[in-house]
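[worker-b] picked up task from shared queue
[worker-b] task type: protein-ligand structure
[worker-b] ligand name resolved to guanosine-5'-triphosphate; SMILES cross-checked against name lookup, match
[worker-b] sequence length check passed
[worker-b] input payload:
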Amino acid sequence: MSDLLSAKVMRSHQREFDCKLLESAELVTAKALGNLLKKGDNIVVGDNVLLEKIEQTGEFIIKELLERKSEVFRVLIRQSKKKVTAANIDYLIIICSSSRPKYVRGILERFLVRAYQWGIEPLVVFNKMDEYTGEDFSIEYEVERLSGLGVKSFEISALNKDYEPEYLELGLKDLKEMIQNKTSIFVGKSGVGKSETITTLSDGKANLLTKSVRKIGKGSHTTTWSELVDCEDFYLVDSPGIRSFSLDDIDPDDLIHYFPDVEKISLRCDFSNCTHLPDNKGCAFYQEYDPDTDEGLMVHSRLESYLMLYDELSSTPFWEKKKKYRS
Ligand SMILES: Nc1nc2c(ncn2[C@@H]2O[C@H](COP(=O)(O)OP(=O)(O)OP(=O)(O)O)[C@@H](O)[C@H]2O)c(=O)[nH]1
Ligand SMILES: [Mg+2]
Ligand SMILES: [Zn+2]
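[worker-b] inference finished, payload out:
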């Protein structure tokens, strides 16, 4: 048997994968053997694999899927298993628009839940700053709120590379520096500028991969739903696979673990079954944080997001969903 080659999965089709050989940076198409696919999760973009080259035919076969350091996934409640859409992601880049479409804090909060669930560090990008007026929301308040969670925010204009941050310290250059040698996945509402930002960050390289893969790859590429954009010094994913903002695959009782700041305070409530409503006795949120102070306001606004999502997830009890899907 010939030596195995280390490679990274750049695009996935049904059973064929465009892989980049790590040593030569050459792009090749590789097949996965049936038993590898059946054993566990599918092979997804970002996966690190070992390939064997069949000398007679020149074909590449994926022999081994290497351990993942992170996974982007949803839970398939019916089958009680995870559906992974990307692997080995370092940053979840949540793009918000500062003009149109309007900034919606609720969407940001949902993606933060995913970041904590997946164990991937979130970075928040306020794009379209060239059109920011301050009428719809205060970016300074949002940034302060995020920094209270330990989340970094960047202020950019994907269309105008020379835009300098006015309200924040961090801009496009800082974002680019941050993602060097890392793999980042972009999420956000349609129209916020994910593709535009990827194009800007990649300095036009975003299109190179598509062209070269088309040349090498076989058959139609219309089934492609996710790809890793090779920017030489870093990788970016613009994934249509996670466009849904719904969190309904999360057990409401697990939700608090994905609000680490809320969870920390809730441990100080007098009763372990405290529901953190204003008339609850001994609730740490009302005893310790006055909403009339700056800090209190932020704590209560995070609590509000948590309670709203908890209600939403509880409206169809998790076990009901499970039963419904099972029958
Ligand atoms: N003024 C301004 N417009 C921008 C900026 N970034 C993106 N746009 C425009 O906003 C529109 C949407 O940008 P896209 O990059 O396609 O948005 P997207 O998030 O990829 O949207 P989907 O692919 O639908 O999810 C395009 O017309 C962009 O040119 C910006 O910084 N400033
Ligand atoms: Mg797009
Ligand atoms: Zn409480």
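[worker-b] attaching auto-annotations
[worker-b] The chain has three domains: 5-65, 86-242, 255-326.
[worker-b] releasing lock
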